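dumping this here so i dont lose it again. seq + smiles for magnesium ion
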Amino acid sequence: MSPTTSAPIIDIEGLSLAYARDGRTNVILDKLDLAIPRGQFLVIVGESGVGKSTLLRVLIDLAKPSGGTVTVNVDPAIRTPMALVFQDARLLPWRRVLANVAFGLERLGMPKAERCARAEQMLSLVGLGDLGGRWPHQLSGGQRQRVALARALAVEPEVLLMDEPFSALDSFTREGLQDEVQRIQQKTAKTVLFVTHDIDEAVYLADRVVVLAGAPGRIAADVTIDQPRPRARRDAALVEAARQLRGELSRRSADL
Amino acid sequence: MIRLRATGLALVGLVAFLIVWEAAPRLDLVNPAFLPPPSTIPAALLKEIASGAWLVAVIESLSHYVIGLCVGAGAGMALGIVAGMFRSFENLTAWVVRLLRPIPGLAWVPFAIIWFGVEPRAAVFIIAIGVFWIVFFATQGAVRSVDRDLIEVAQAFGFRSPLARLAKIVLPAATPGILVGLRTALGQAWMAVVAAEIFGVPGIGSRMMQASSLLSTDIVVVYMLTMAALYGLFDTAFVALQGWLLRWRP
Ligand SMILES: Nc1ncnc2c1ncn2[C@@H]1O[C@H](COP(=O)(O)OP(=O)(O)OP(=O)(O)O)[C@@H](O)[C@H]1O
Ligand SMILES: [Mg+2]
């Protein structure tokens, strides 16, 4: 059966996750339901420790849920339905930039020349076309994050997962990269799950913002932001949406 | 400028050392038969080379050295990787390792001779044992301390089998630590070469023993210096290789 376009590309139902610690179980996520339509730019916000990274780790199979199901509706022929951009770029220091970008392609049985060509192309896409020959330690933090983004894009995932990818960067670099991600997402029409602490970043990028709150974490708010793109950072509607989300977040944490 | 000065001082030190060495037997402070002055060494070397003995001894020792090093380092790396990657294997071998590890390589000489005779294989065996433990522990430690975060990167990109993990992350990440162990082993193996050959396996060590029994101390010194030179050569080449392999480091 080929996936229908109307079905959500990711359908999370009753997802729970608990860690055993000191003989007690520590429930991080509790019966989470979330359906993500194809092509949506979904931003997840929430306090530190609420389980945002854990959710992404479950999706990409780095963590096993203790209950519930995750359905991913993609063509089974696609070997890398998802790719993850980590908060700290996590480039492999012994590979040059180009080889880092090509990393995920080495599993796909692609000839070397083609891998290089694809990696070059992705590097240009993130604006680092001429840095392919450098070692990771010769890059700035922002450049490293771009390489991590290119590495994730290179495998042509259906869903791009990004875990606070820009939180360690200065605001100037961060805004540049936000625009970059927005442009790439517009161009490739990929589904994006983007985790952030930054409410302004969330409303600027998102089609939809989901607030995770509480212990165990649940969805406390689910807000659609349907401002047309390209957006202006100081757009009144976005500022208003951010104000409401902040209110929501502080109300939720006051409740606990 | 500072480097030039350091080189100059090192040279002064060496010359002073040679002068003291030369003076001691000449001024009869020691018996020249027990300590030949350095000025006699070049002639002794030429004589030894001309007779063909030098080249034969060097080739024999080098072959013990290289084969022993490869066998010991290969086994040490292989088992070190398995022990570093799989906790169960480490646990399984923990007490065996504790039992065997403190036994010095030379304590294996009797068995080496019983098993292999006074043959090159005995020397290779003794060299390999000494090298094995050094490389094994260096590799195990390096593999165990590979950054978990980088292993997750491999997993996230679908490299999930132990072999893929090894090739893509563990081996390159552990290379610096493994190389440190290998360099130590490079020096240790020379000691083992001489020790093994002193028991009769043909090579530099046995040639030195022959010379000393004839009180040809100048020949003994020739081979001591030969070993120093060979070790220096190997170490320099290794450091160059290491620098190239680790050129990704800041
Ligand atoms: N391996 C683990 N074992 C036990 N507890 C864990 C483990 N990994 C994460 N946790 C706990 O799970 C909770 C959620 O962690 P997670 O990393 O998902 O938070 P987060 O929302 O991403 O936070 P941040 O915004 O600070 O990144 C935290 O309380 C953390 O302590
Ligand atoms: Mg996190």
